[in-house]
Each structure stands twice: as C-alpha cells, then as structure tokens.
Specification:
The chain has 19 helices and 28 strands. Helix 5 links the parallel strand 5 and strand 6. The protein has a six-stranded mixed β-sheet, with helices on both faces. Strands 12-11-10-8-13-14 form a six-stranded mixed β-sheet. The chain starts with a helix and ends with a helix. It is globular, with a radius of gyration of 25 Å. It folds into three domains: 4-147, Creatine Amidinohydrolase, Chain A, domain 1 (3-Layer(aba) Sandwich), CATH 3.40.350.10; 160-294, Creatine Amidinohydrolase, Chain A, domain 1, CATH 3.40.350.10; 303-594, Creatinase/methionine aminopeptidase superfamily (Creatine Amidinohydrolase). By secondary structure, the chain is of the alpha+beta class.
Length: 598
C-alpha cells in the first residue's frame, strides 16, 4: 500500500505531463450525491482523510484538505505525516477553496478536475478564475484514476422494484405529473442526474451507495419517451419486463454524455446545473436553450401521499421498539459492562436490524459521549472511540430505512450524575423541540417563518446553535431531502425555503454544544398536516411521528412553563399509548417510568 506522499507525487507527475498547476479532488460522485460509493472516494485515496465531506486541492508544491467543524479532530489525526495541510472551513482567516485557488493560480496556468465530479455551477466558478488569469480548465480526464491502481470497481448492485403498496403512486402517474410541469415551463426535454429523484420517479431502489438505496443512472424525459441510462448488468428479467410495461427504454450508463451532445437546437432543456455535472452541461450544444431550475420531482417527492404517511407511522413504531430497547439496556448496564461509543452504536444497529422490513441504516450513526457530544456531526473512529462511564451525557443521532419509510432520531441519554448546567441546557433543548412541534400556522408559511419558535428559548438568553433546526426526510431515499426545512435564514448551498405542504416530513432537532464538555440534541420527525379551515384561511399543524421518550432524568420542570410541561406530558402519553403494546415485563415498566407526567 503506497503512502500519501507517494500518491501525491504520482498525481503531480501526471499533472506535470499535462501542464496542470492546480488539481481539485472533491468528495463527490457523478450525481452530487450526499454520500458516495467506494469507487468515488478519490479524495480519501489522495489525502488519507476518511470523513464523508471535504475537498482536496493539490498544487506542485502543496496539498490542502478543506473540511467542516465536525471533522477537525479526525482530520488532524488522519493527516499527520501526510504532507496535506488541514484548512478548517468557516474558521476566521481560513480561505475558501475558490479563494485559495484564485490566490494561488498564476497567470496563464491551468486548473484541472474530473468534470464528472464537479457540478456545473461550481465548474463555472473555476472557469471564471482561470479566465481572469488568462488560463484554462482541464476537465476531460480523471487523473486520480491513473495513479489509483487498486481502485474498487464501480458499484453494480441489484435493483429492486418498490411495490406500489408502499409508495402509493404508480410510475405512470409520476411521469405524467413531471411532464405536466415540463409543459408549464416550456421544456421539451428534461435531463435528470439526481439519483434520489430518478429512483423516486421510476419506483425503483438499489444499493449503489451506503445508507442511500439508489441506482447509479441518468434519465432523459420527453413528452412521449423516457430513457434511463443505467449499467446494463443491473437489469434482470423482472426489471426489464417492468420497464417495458411502463414504456421506459434503457441505454448504457456512460452513453448519456454522447446523448446530450446530440440534442438538437430546437429542443428546450430543463435541468438543474447545481446537480448536473460540468462535463454533461459542457457537452450540450451551445445553441440549445436551457432552463436551469430545480427538478420538478424535488417538490413532488417531498409531499408524502396518504399511503406513505400511514407507512411512515409503521416505520417509526418499528424504530421506536429498537430505540426504547436500547435506552432500557443502556440505563441498566452502563458502568456494569464494558461499553464504548462504537460498541453501543453497533448494539443499536443490531436492534434496528432485528425489526421486520429493516433495509439498512439511513446514515452513519453519530454516538458522542461527554465532550464528543459537542462535535455537531461527530463520527467515532477507532482513534477517537472512548469508554462510557456511569456519569454524564451520551448523544446518539441515528436512523433506519424500512420498507415503510425512513427514520431519523436523536436522543441524549443521562448515564449517571450530571451537573445543574447540563440539566438546564437539556431542558432548554426539550422546550425548543416541543414548542416547534406544537406550532399552529396558516398555509403559506415556510420553515423560515417557524424557526424562531425553536430558537426563542436560546435567543432569550443570548444562545444559539449553528445548524438548521430541521431538514426534510426522503421516503426510503436520502435522509436529508429538500425543499422543506427549518432554518432562520437562507443558506447559500441549500434551498429549504419551500411552503410547508401537507405530507411533508421535517425533522425538529435543536441542540446545545458546549465545547470540551458535552452536547445535547433532541430530534423528532414531524408530518405537516391540514387543520381547520375558516375565514382566516387554511390552518396547518404537525403530527409527531417519533415515539421515543425524552430522558426525564435531565429535565428540570421548574425551568418550563406550565404550557411546556403539559406539551411534554402530552407527548409522553402519546408515546406510551402508541408503544406499550410492543413491550412487557421490565421493559414495559421502564417505558411507563420514562413517559410519566411531570
């Protein structure tokens, strides 16, 4: 196995042959997916950093890795001796990737990257920097591939047809809905690269990415044709028959690049250049009109139909069985048997996988004890794994995919004696969570209108948390789904300001993170529902579908208003009534104790 300096040296030799001054290696596949398969982990290969997010920038004399706060600790350890410098994103005085490239690129020099792993919007920014310096881009070759001799093969996992009894809508109906949106926009052809949206549209799922049941593919849709560009090896007889029945034709995965070259000048293309990669967009003839907008499927798939809503409730009951069993086991055994962050995370996974219809985890479990809980998206590694003791707080953010839906839940557990400060912060987070869940609002509100409800308990004492209060959740797809979310301002890299529609599922997950000490986060999933309609308009409310106790061992009732105490009691009564039928004996007594009225 070659060392990181050896790999960088080999990459620089290839850069030199092509006169490339700066080479960019992101954490990305060809589809802007949130997580990527092993074949696409080029940034991990070239830097040695294993976190799920980051960008490497290599020059002839330097190599830098840009990653966010959740990975600073891990990156510092993993980059030791690698000659790769860590650039801590969003920290004062640290340049962004584009700022660094602009400052480093000299007159007439070339910026290189694989045009399939950088989206068109970002690619255009690199082009502007190169042109400013009278340089150019080199994008038609994957240089890491030339030096990565034992690169894993691209995933070709089996594809399965997602039964209509789970999804509640036929492919025919979905194709018709998207075509209607295309017609409204004046588009004649719609190009799709988002794996989530293609899987949704075709009612198929796969296993090409860990935690995300999708299929590597592209899609081209016109008024009367639907062409799916997919690896031919994944099409078995049942899938071929299903596709034929729905008038969907297939072409080889890689042929999409040539297909777009052949789009005629009288076509009007609808696509999202923030998802479509640079090479595809560059291959579309210059004289073709492009409507650059979010795919219509993004909004359509975020609104869960009544069949999906009922299934989501079933999925959450299964998930709650695993979580409550875990909470009981943890409280009973901590300090008595050996436990570490990784071992308890593995135990929780085993409880989830025991549930009928569990397909996979929905993301890599975050399990942070004591000060690790203060790292917002902490990921325990063998280097950072610590033993749990019968004291302090353990933050566990986890979820699963079931045939009936996708779950995402965070609970912070009391493992023994905790400080008054920890109790006060835990109670503040609880107040925030239950107050947002209790919101009543007029139709037309977005999560931006409601986010202040969650932040008020923080803002009133000059505190805050540096993340959104919640995100949309996919239906057996990606756990982070737009266009709905709760945040107080528009984030440049996310569009989560959509009007909240009946059927949208959004997480409610405020938190407090005291660096070097502890973290508290409490997360439930909420389904947006229609309430009464009167002379003032259509009122909306949230249905809470997470059925797991919030740890009463850390609650200070005197720090809550009478309304807040009532809300917590109502929530816990609902949890007990929903989940009691699934338990007996000691576990049932435990559930009763942890859902008691305060």
């Amino acid at each position: 196995m070659s060392t990181i300096p050896e790999r960088l040296s080999a990459l620089r030799a290839e850069m030199k042959k092509r006169n490339i001054a700066i080479y960019v290696v992101p954490t990305a596949d060809f589809h802007e997916s949130e997580y990527v398969g092993d074949y696409f982990k080029a940034r991990k290969f070239i830097t040695g950093f294993t976190g799920s997010a980051g960008t490497a920038v290599i020059t002839m004399t330097e190599a830098g890795l840009w990653t966010d706060a959740r990975y600073f600790l891990q990156a510092e350890k993993q980059l030791e001796g690698s000659t790769v410098t860590l650039y801590k994103m969003a920290e004062e005085g640290v340049p962004t990737v584009t700022e660094y490239i602009e400052k480093t690129l000299k007159e007439g020099e070339i910026i290189g990257f694989d045009g399939r792993v950088i989206n068109s919007s970002l690619g255009k920014k690199f082009l502007a920097i190169a042109e400013k310096k009278n340089g150019k881009l080199y994008v038609d070759e994957d240089l890491v591939d030339l030096v990565w001799t034992d690169r894993p093969a691209m995933s070709k996992e089996p594809v399965w047809i997602f039964d209509e009894k789970y999804v509640g809508e036929s492919v025919e109906s979905k194709l018709s809905a998207v075509r209607k949106k295309m017609e409204e926009k004046g588009a004649t052809i719609h190009l799709m690269a988002s794996l989530y949206d293609i899987a949704w549209l075709l009612n198929v799922r796969g296993r090409d990415i860990s935690y995300v049941p999708v299929v590597l593919s592209y899609l081209a849709l016109t008024k009367d044709s639907c062409v799916w560009f997919v690896q031919e090896e994944v099409i078995d007889d049942a899938l071929a028959a299903y596709l034929a029945k729905n008038n969907i034709t297939t072409k080889p995965y890689d042929s999409f690049y040539d297909f777009v070259k052949g789009i005629s000048s009288d076509e009007v293309v609808l696509m999202n250049t923030s998802v479509m990669n640079y090479r595809i967009v560059n291959n579309i003839p210059q004289n073709v009109k492009v409507i650059d907008e979010v795919d219509p499927s993004v909004l359509l798939k975020s609104i869960k139909n009544p069949v999906q809503m009922e299934n989501i409730r079933i999925a959450h009951k299964k998930d709650a069985v695993a979580m409550i069993k875990f909470m009981y086991w943890l409280k009973k055994n901590v300090g008595k048997i050996p436990m570490t962050e990784i071992s308890v995370s593995d135990y929780l996974e085993s409880l989830r996988r025991e549930q009928d219809g569990c397909l996979d985890l929905s993301f890599d479990t975050i399990c942070g004890y004591a000060e690790h809980g203060a790292i917002v998206h902490y990921s325990a590694t063998p280097e950072s794994d610590v033993p749990l003791q019968a004291k302090g707080l353990l933050l566990v953010d986890s979820g699963g995919h079931y045939l009936e839906g996708t779950t995402d839940i965070t609970r912070t557990f009391v493992l023994g004696p905790i400080t008054e400060e920890e109790k006060e912060d835990f109670t503040r987070v609880c107040r925030s969570n239950i107050n947002l869940a209790a919101a009543r609002f007029l139709y037309g509100c977005s999560g931006m209108n409601l986010d202040i409800i969650a932040r008020e308990p923080f803002w009133e004492v000059g505190m805050d948390y540096k993340h959104g209060t919640g995100h949309g959740v996919g239906y057996v797809l990606n756990v982070h789904e737009g266009p709905n979310g709760f945040r107080w301002r528009q984030s440049p890299d996310r569009s989560e300001g959509a009007t909240l529609e009946e059927g949208m599922v959004t997480t409610d997950e405020p938190g407090i993170y005291i660096e070097g000490k502890y973290g508290v986060r409490t997360e439930n999933e909420l389904i947006c529902r229609k309430g009464e309609k009167n002379e003032y308009g259509q009122f909306m409310y949230f249905e809470n579908v997470t059925y797991v106790p919030i740890d009463l061992d850390a609650i200070l009732p005197e720090k809550m208003t009478s309304v807040e105490r009532q809300r917590l009691n109502d929530y816990h009564r609902m949890v007990y009534d929903t989940m009691a039928p699934y338990f007996s004996g000691e576990e049932l007594e435990f559930l009763k104790e942890y859902t008691r009225a305060i």
